[in-house]
Amino acid sequence: MINVTKPNLPELSEFMPYLEEIWKSGVLTNNGRFHQELERALAEYLGLNHVSLVCDATVGLMLAQEVLGLRGSDVITTPYSFAATAHSIMWMANRPIFVDIEPDSACLDPNLIERALTQNTKAIMPLHCYGNTCRTDAIQQIAQRHNLKVIYDACHSFGVTDDGGSVLRHGDISVISFHATKIFNTFEGGLIVAPDEETKIKVDRLKNFGFLNEEVVTSSGINGKLNEVSAAFGLVQLNRMEGYIAARAEIDRVYRARLAAVPGVKCLEPVRQIKRNYAYFPVVVEESFPLSRENLYRDLRHRGIGARRYFYPLITDFDSVRGRGFNTDDRFTNASALSSRVLCLPLYPALSLSDVEFICDSIEQVYLKSG
């Protein structure tokens, strides 16, 4: 099976000196040497000032809500995302209010936010989907008019820039994922991007049980720290990032060149990205294609191609969310349409161009056979 993604793994020999240092020091966690080095290295690489490593992005989204004082609030968010976006809101005793997406970017549509506001709305949590950047200026204007906080789920946006720099600088807080499937990974992990030193200090305390020192606990924190082994792995990975992204870019180029000749398969274009990270390769199976998306999905899997339907079903269709008093019965026209037609094709640096050609040949063969 050619899976939709595969973790980036450097040569084990590159990682072993870090493990030997960890074994020698005996420091496995609690803000150790490699944790501190990775925070500094990521801040420099991303062009940011205040970043805090966490054990995963879901905990990061929860910490962001706690830092911003969001408890028992309504939070505007997207139905078109991974389940963790909404689940992080629910775990904080907040209520997700879902708003439809833009059809081109798959990001939250700012034009629909204000009509969804309630008297208890305190925040907006949009997703920079597929690396596409939300309409951050419009969202910020709405937030300022209504005194709302903005937390960006930026899990797809490592290294992405818009015309002002890193997209992670937007909002009150941004959170990024370092899960094994992401373009930069630390096995599991994540990063909180804070706007200032004061916010970073709050995050750092909350992710360490709320401790100020060994005698003083100032808040009801949790254990959200990243361990030393994961941090060390991140340092190895960071040295390879430009090569990883270049490999992804070449795969993206071949896909676009080959699939342009297949009627009914539309490659989604990047939106509001200056520097891309090529995190995903989504295509839309249009009505003119002779097979439905579901049938093409099954046919590709039969051929050993593990395309994924990111994101299907919508969050609002999950049992974990439906029937909880949220607006899950609303019409999300754009999100529903995209969810029923999107396929993300395999994309990772180790994917050979011969496999990319095989994937494109397979789609073309399906078209010719069924057309």
Fold blueprint:
Blueprint: H1 12-25, H2 33-46, E1 51-54, H3 57-67, E2 74-77, H4 83-91, E3 95-98, H5 113-116, E4 121-125, H6 136-146, E5 149-153, E6 161-162, E7 165-166, E8 173-177, E9 190-193, H7 197-206, E10 211-213, E11 216-217, H8 228-238, H9 241-259, E12 265-267, E13 282-285, H10 293-302, H11 333-339, E14 342-344, H12 353-370
Parallel strand pairs: 2-3, 2-4, 4-5, 5-8
Antiparallel strand pairs: 1-9, 6-7, 8-9, 10-11, 12-13, 13-14
Helix pairs in contact: 1-8, 2-8, 3-4, 3-7, 9-12
Written description of the protein model:
The chain is an alpha/beta fold. The chain has two domains: about 230 residues, Aspartate Aminotransferase, domain 2; about 90 residues, Aspartate Aminotransferase, domain 1, CATH 3.90.1150.10. Helix content is about 35%, strand content about 15%. It is built from twelve helices and 14 strands. It has a seven-stranded mixed β-sheet, with helices on both faces. A three-stranded antiparallel β-sheet has the order 12-13-14, covered by helices on one side. Helix 1 packs antiparallel against helix 8, helix 2 packs parallel to helix 8 and helix 9 runs parallel beside helix 12. The longest helix has 19 residues. The radius of gyration is 21 Å and the shape is globular. It starts with 11 loop residues before the first helix and ends with a helix.
Quick take:
The chain has 371 residues and is an alpha/beta fold. 37% of the residues lie in helices and 13% in strands. It has 2 domains: 227 residues, Aspartate Aminotransferase, domain 2; 93 residues, Alpha-Beta Complex (Aspartate Aminotransferase, domain 1), CATH 3.90.1150.10.
